[in-house]
Amino acid sequence: MPAAQILMPAPMADDVVAALDDRFMLHRLWEQDDREGFLRSVAPDIRGLAVSTLAGRIDAAWFDRLPALEIVASFGVGYDNVDAGAAAGRGIVVTNTPGVLDDEVADLAVGLLLATLRRIPQADRFVREGRWADGAFPLSPTLRGRRVGILGLGAIGKAIAHRLAAFGVSIGYHGRSRQDGVDYRYYVTTVALAEASDVVMAVVPGGSGTRHLVDADVLAALGPDGVLINVSRGSVVDERALVAALLDGTIGGAGLDVFENEPQVPEALLAMPNVVLLPHIGSASHATRAAMGRLVVENLTTWFDEGRALTPVPETSRR
Ligand code: 8YV
């Protein structure tokens, strides 16, 4: 049987491209001069799509063009870039890369929390700019005695909570429902969580269901000493409300790895001394990105060899 044909609309890591090239007939759409013409010629035979967020939104418009499509293998645990509901309706399986990045993202989240509270990047700049000789760096807020609210207690949220327990802080959470076998205190709403917390860490998946979950009301409930950490998706936070809340002291600070319109970052944030801004690097270590890439390749391989996907997303997992 000829190798299945896989379309990669936008570049992915070299090791993913090489592994797929080895096992399948891989089409690199971004390398074509006439992408539209190329797509027309290969579309009827494409059985798999390999995508990262660089490929843009993968939705019904793509599925309409690819009548033989069986699987979308997406790079990343978050798959809000793929319309999984539309895929499920057509019997197309969607896979993501859960599990292999949980610890990496949790490490980064805790690092970002400490960096934000203790102003670590600002202190580094202070030394580099030769300002130490002129006087001590200003005192910072502290993690000591804080109550941390985890917004979204999935695998990454649990990995964060597990780490934070060692820091001796108290931990609460909000999610769609209370979880059995979890000792952290549950709050029924995001506002209730924010009211009971000095730090809110957003770890919920993106998408329409969580859009602007952190809004002006949640920020007001978090309060003037409160700190928001976001390592999930920019869409989860109402960025305009966040900028306003930081400007007028409604909250005390923020550590942000994700933004509503990446790679654009609101100008106002750049000038603020009480925020730490990262370029979406939660999972971005060599080892973890390689593990995510392997899982993309393994999902496609087991699908075409054995007719099953390793990590289908819940919307499409009954196939
Ligand atoms: C990646 C991510 O930055 O896994 C996710 O959901 O946000 C990150 O690991 C992203 O998938 C890159 O395409």
Automatic annotation (TrEMBL):
<dbReference type="InterPro" id="IPR006139">
    <property type="entry name" value="D-isomer_2_OHA_DH_cat_dom"/>
</dbReference>
<dbReference type="InterPro" id="IPR036291">
    <property type="entry name" value="NAD(P)-bd_dom_sf"/>
</dbReference>
<feature type="domain" description="D-isomer specific 2-hydroxyacid dehydrogenase catalytic">
    <location>
        <begin position="30"/>
        <end position="313"/>
    </location>
</feature>
<dbReference type="GO" id="GO:0005829">
    <property type="term" value="C:cytosol"/>
</dbReference>
<dbReference type="InterPro" id="IPR006140">
    <property type="entry name" value="D-isomer_DH_NAD-bd"/>
</dbReference>
<dbReference type="Pfam" id="PF00389">
    <property type="entry name" value="2-Hacid_dh"/>
</dbReference>
<dbReference type="GO" id="GO:0030267">
    <property type="term" value="F:glyoxylate reductase (NADPH) activity"/>
</dbReference>
<dbReference type="Pfam" id="PF02826">
    <property type="entry name" value="2-Hacid_dh_C"/>
</dbReference>
<keyword id="KW-0560">Oxidoreductase</keyword>
<keyword id="KW-0521">NADP</keyword>
<dbReference type="GO" id="GO:0051287">
    <property type="term" value="F:NAD binding"/>
</dbReference>
<dbReference type="GO" id="GO:0016618">
    <property type="term" value="F:hydroxypyruvate reductase [NAD(P)H] activity"/>
</dbReference>
<protein>
    <submittedName>
        <fullName>2-hydroxyacid dehydrogenase</fullName>
    </submittedName>
</protein>
<dbReference type="InterPro" id="IPR050223">
    <property type="entry name" value="D-isomer_2-hydroxyacid_DH"/>
</dbReference>
<keyword id="KW-0520">NAD</keyword>
<feature type="domain" description="D-isomer specific 2-hydroxyacid dehydrogenase NAD-binding">
    <location>
        <begin position="110"/>
        <end position="282"/>
    </location>
</feature>
<comment type="similarity">
    <text>Belongs to the D-isomer specific 2-hydroxyacid dehydrogenase family.</text>
</comment>
